[in-house]
Design goal:
Distance between the termini: 10 Å
CATH class of the largest domain: Alpha Beta
Number of domains: 2
Strand content: 25-35%
């Protein structure tokens, strides 16, 4: 089968950072689906895993953790899907990735693709949707069905992939959304998706949020990086909560968090699959719920750029776009 892989971890402008290779077609066992991949999307986690380091892979390594495709075959323990089903999923960081014609994926972290979306539109959604959903409803404890209606949430880095779907999920839950964006095009994008107010995360966010009439906000999601930690601590209400998806080596002073009795939550959507948690099937249920919401017209895809075909050249282009830090929505690569 065709695949895009790496053997060395190189800067993305190096033509050997990704290679077009032929690999054996895998065989499903147990809970595995064998999926014929039609489209993939690229996330910051892809660029972090590929970042330059001295490691050399003896056999080509396939990255990629967002895909949509068709079930080709199933393992003996599969009960949720059958060959021919169209599916979408974010995958498992401990297994071979989606940048290949065929991929093995555990059925418990897969959902049926939204019927109203193309493969490219669907591939833009799983990882960011799982991340935003778990951030808001599992980590922060917000009620998906409106029990926290009218409360405020500050989404820092709202114009990216996670923020773009996060705005829509927060809106559906009835929250008042303060989104951050730093450019006119991303400001327009987050408003289009449903943000009530927009502030610039490259300027004084505390002053901007308070000028809007919010002394504190009820919930905060840091969806870009932890440089904004002290701003988040200043703005979170007493007994409020902050969720972040960014790992960091930066200092994280906790004294004000203690005074406010506020809480910090980490979100990593790969944790369920990585540790085979008892609630692993929750991601199947979550993706099923989101597909229904999309088909009902209440949530939209966040795809912004589509490249074709899936090959090393286009994968380098996609990674380069992500590494600028200014991508709007999601970047998808479609078709072998």
């Amino acid at each position: 089968m065709k695949a895009v892989a790496l053997t060395h971890y190189l800067p993305i402008d190096d033509p050997k950072s990704f290679l077009d290779v032929d690999l054996p077609k895998p065989v499903p066992e147990g809970h595995d689906l064998l999926v014929s991949v039609k489209a993939v999307s690229v996330n910051p986690v892809d660029t972090k895993v590929r970042a330059p380091k001295d490691t050399i892979e003896e056999t080509p390594r396939v990255l990629g953790w967002d895909a949509a495709g068709t079930v080709e075959a199933v393992g003996s323990g599969v009960t949720l899907f059958k060959p021919g089903d169209e599916v979408y999923y974010a995958g498992d960081i401990t297994r071979s990735g989606s940048n290949a014609q065929f991929q093995l994926i555990d059925e418990r972290i897969v959902g049926l693709k939204p019927r109203t979306l193309s493969f490219a539109e669907a591939a833009a959604l799983p990882l960011t949707t799982l991340t935003a959903y778990e951030s808001f409803f599992d980590r922060l404890g917000i009620d998906r069905d409106g029990g926290n209606r009218g409360e405020s949430i500050l989404i820092i880095g709202a114009g990216g992939g996670v923020g773009s779907i996060g705005i829509q999920l927060a809106k559906a839950a009835g929250l008042r959304i303060i989104a951050t964006a730093s450019r006119p095009e991303t400001s327009a994008w987050v408003r289009e998706l449903g943000a009530d107010e927009v502030v610039n995360h490259r300027e004084d966010m505390v002053a901007q949020v308070r000028a809007l009439g919010h002394q504190y906000v009820d919930h905060i999601a840091i969806f870009n990086d932890m440089r904004h930690w002290e701003t988040a601590v200043e703005l979170i209400r007493p007994q409020g909560a902050i969720v972040t998806i960014d790992d960091t080596n930066l200092p994280m002073p906790m004294d004000k968090m203690k005074l406010k009795a506020a809480s910090l939550h980490w979100e990593f959507m790969f944790a369920r699959a990585m540790f085979q948690t008892p609630d692993m099937i929750g991601q199947h249920k979550l993706l099923t719920y989101v597909a229904r919401e999309i088909d009902a017209g209440r949530i939209r895809t966040t795809v912004d750029t589509v490249l074709s075909p899936i090959n090393a050249e286009n994968m380098r282009k996609a990674h380069a776009l992500i590494e600028t830090g200014t991508a709007k929505g999601k970047i998808v690569v479609e078709g072998f």
